[in-house]
Design brief:
This protein has one domain: Orthogonal Bundle (MetI-like fold). It has eight helices and no strands. The radius of gyration is 21 Å and the shape is flat. It starts with a helix and ends with a helix.
């Protein structure tokens, strides 16, 4: 058996454990927190008072205009100088959540704005308030529009979690770096880490396709019902 294959087999479980313990939980928690943040940021952007709208716009502008790597460095290495010390996992969770929130706020806002004005008018004609119209009529339709870009955002986030290695979170890529530092075989280890990310994202892409088909069938059925 070639030495490189033996090395990949020996390092497989440490890398997989890094994914199970850190990469996947970090991606799930960050995406969930970021999605909640994105939802409220989008609603404020669309319907909020001017001061809050200005704050949301500044937040989106700041996060989207700066690299994620820099944001992680500011949170983990920069904030301690201001007296706020965070452990690596917490810093990564905050950084990824803020990043996801900023990008997906625009996705959700665009999805809501894509719903025709007539849908609002129809809801108002049934004596719904704006909140009721949003909850019962607009958001269910906007969700179908938002599914593909939100799914793409989650897949991108899974890959972006590799950046957590720079703030010492022991996820897949950090595990590969540690083993490579001992074995002096970075090419083999980094390629193996890439294959693990590829496998995870392939599964997620397949799940995204099924989800889009489900919502597509549901949308066609709804149109026929009308």
């Amino acid at each position: 058996m070639p030495d490189w294959l033996q090395l990949m087999m020996a390092s497989f479980w440490p890398l997989i454990l890094g994914g199970i313990k850190f990469t996947i939980p970090l991606a799930l928690l960050s995406f969930a927190a970021g999605l909640v943040l994105a939802f409220f940021a989008a609603l404020i952007h669309l319907f909020g008072p001017a001061p809050l709208v200005a704050i949301v716009r500044f937040y989106i502008w700041l996060i989207r205009g700066t690299p994620l790597l820099v944001q992680l460095f500011v949170i983990f290495y920069g904030l301690p100088s201001a007296g706020l010390v965070l452990d690596p996992l917490s810093a990564a969770l905050i950084g990824f959540s803020l990043n996801v929130g900023a990008y997906n706020a625009e996705v959700i806002r665009g999805a809501i704005e894509s719903i025709p004005r007539g849908q609002w008018d129809a809801a108002y004609s049934l004596n719904m308030t704006r909140g009721q119209a949003l909850r019962r009529t607009i958001l269910p339709q906007a969700a179908r529009v938002a599914v593909p870009p939100l799914a793409n955002s989650f897949i991108s986030l899974v890959k972006d979690t590799s950046l957590a290695a720079v703030i010492t979170v022991p996820e897949v890529f950090q595990a590969a770096q540690r083993i490579a530092a001992v074995t002096y075989e970075p090419l083999v280890l980094y390629c193996e880490a890439a294959l693990i990310y590829l496998a995870i994202c392939s599964v997620l892409s397949a799940a995204q396709t099924r989800l889009e088909r489900h919502y597509g069938r549901h949308a066609v059925f709804s149109e026929r019902q009308r």
